[in-house]
Design goal:
Elements lengths: L9 E4 L1 E4 L2 E9 L16 H25 L8 H11 L5 H11 L3 H17 L4 H4 L2 H16 L13 E5 L4 H5 L6 E6 L7 H9 L3 E3 L4 H4 L5 E5 L4 E4 L3 H24 L13 E6 L5 H6 L5 E5 L1 H5 L7 H15 L3 E5 L26 H7 L1 H14 L4 E6 L5 H20 L9 E6 L2 H5 L1 H4 L5 E4 L1 H9 L17 H16 L3 E4 L10 H7 L3 E4 L4 H10 L2 H11 L5 H15 L1 H4 L20
Parallel strand pairs: 3-4, 4-5, 5-6, 9-10, 9-16, 10-11, 11-12, 12-13, 13-14, 14-15, 15-16
Antiparallel strand pairs: 1-8, 2-6, 3-7, 7-8
Amino acid sequence: MNSQKKNGPVVLKGVGASPGIAIGPAFLIDNLKIKILRKRIKEGDIDQEKERFVRAITEAEKQINRLLTEIPDELRKHSGIFETHLLMLKDPMLYERTLKLISKEKINAEWALSKVLDYARELFEQIKDQYIRERIEDLEYVVQRVQNLLSGNPLVDFSQLEKPVVLVAHDLSPADTVQMSKGKILAFVTDMGSRTSHTAILGRSLGLPAVVGLENAMSSILSGETLIVDGLSGNVIVAPDDKLLKHYNEKQQHYIRYQLDVIRNSNFPAETQDGFRLKIKANIEFLEEIPSIILHGAEGVGLYRSEYLYLAHKELPTDEVLFHTYKEVAERLSPYPATIRTLDIGGDKFVSSVSLGDEINPALGLRAIRLCLKEPRLFRTQLKAILKASAYGNVRILFPLISGKLEIIEVKKHLEETKEELWKDGIPFDEDIKLGIMIEVPTAVVMADSLAKEVDFFSIGTNDLIQYSLAIDRVNEYVAHLYEPLHPGVLRMIHRTVEAAHEAGIEAAMCGEMAGEAMYLPVLLGIGLDELSMNSLAIPKIKRMIRETKQERCSALVQELLVASTAQEIRENLLEFLISNFPEEFNSSQGMYPDFSGRDMYSLSP
């Protein structure tokens, strides 16, 4: 992070969470700390203290319900976030544990609630999956709301702002975000947060540029200072000079033109100049994302992650609950396909309903298809819901973490038995539903020729494939820098997987993060993938690049890269190809064309 004050402009580097450029005065809100009263209470005051906590919970429920009635139309699709917060208020881990601590330790409600949050943080820190681990933020927002009520602190109120500002805070809750009026808030920056936080998701829905994870914004920025917020690169520039202001005004106009271009061109087919057609689909987690993926030109969903349906409920969802969600996905996407992945988390992620004991390394333990095969009722519930939904649209099933043929045989056994149940009950479904497996384990690559005979398509999950192949834990700060998509071994595995699929007459897709990164597109085109699935915001740029190039040219590049022996050699050759073939996107002297994955190929160094 960058330095303290200040002889000229200061550049703070964070994570671009919502694309766009904003320029305006900083407005700081100090919501970093609620002063937690820590005191012992007398035996005779325990019931009164518990009642005080219950009143605060009840008032928090009223506030959230009121928020739900006032939520702006453009954010109504995200109302599920606040419904989850309502559930959290009465979750036993929060509600009952706090009441027990008040009684057992004879401490006040604020202190007890703070201890419960510390306990929850320890549990969430053990979770490997980044998206799920970050859901502790939702619990923190709920606790902060209750602590505000217990302590008598006022809620954040943006209605009194007299002119448009850039909001600067240690963190913002989703409730704070939905109050932001486009007329008053130009952008927001926070010390905490990530691209997958609900605050960031809401910011993107509002169209507000945002940079999060700055760590020291509150200590580096003064209220009233001019800020440039670059939600494309993750840069926040404090007190810019005239030259920088001119540069970013031009970049802002460039981005606005690009947005208009997206609307005009996002639904053109993703076809190269020499006639190679690539299917471009989206990865989604929520129903509410469907309008956005259609706007940005997705040809269906290549990966629907349904884990949130499990994490958002105290109990395991029934097949009816799952069916209604899957059915809506299928109907809203029809005639485009919806590829629904079966559960891809471990038993350690469930709050209450599945308890399988502690594991030293959950990433290598009982998760994904392994968990489903060990818990047949859990698995059959998903299969039944997906099959029922297949009668309402173009639905495909994707099974994660397959490592060998025996797992596919067992999966098919469960599927056929579930089909028989539906036949007997007279429930319609697609009897020829397409089955796919995720290629994300090295043994699956080695056995790809054999596995391809058992399924209808492959989907390469590069996140785990790279992690497992290079023996790198992506969330371990000491080795995360070694995570290298351009490692020669990784490229050869992707190439081998696609070859095996095509030899067996099935399609090969990619749904990992690599699929949505512009710099890797020539490699993936040259390897001959049939489908890429990505964050919807990345789709327009990927489509545009596909239409600007020839697959034959990319194929020749890949032949050179496959004989390289180091990632550095591959990267240098690839960069030369990108700058030569996509000058508008990758010419560093002109600045990077907007990349909605949250990264710039070249950081703009003002």
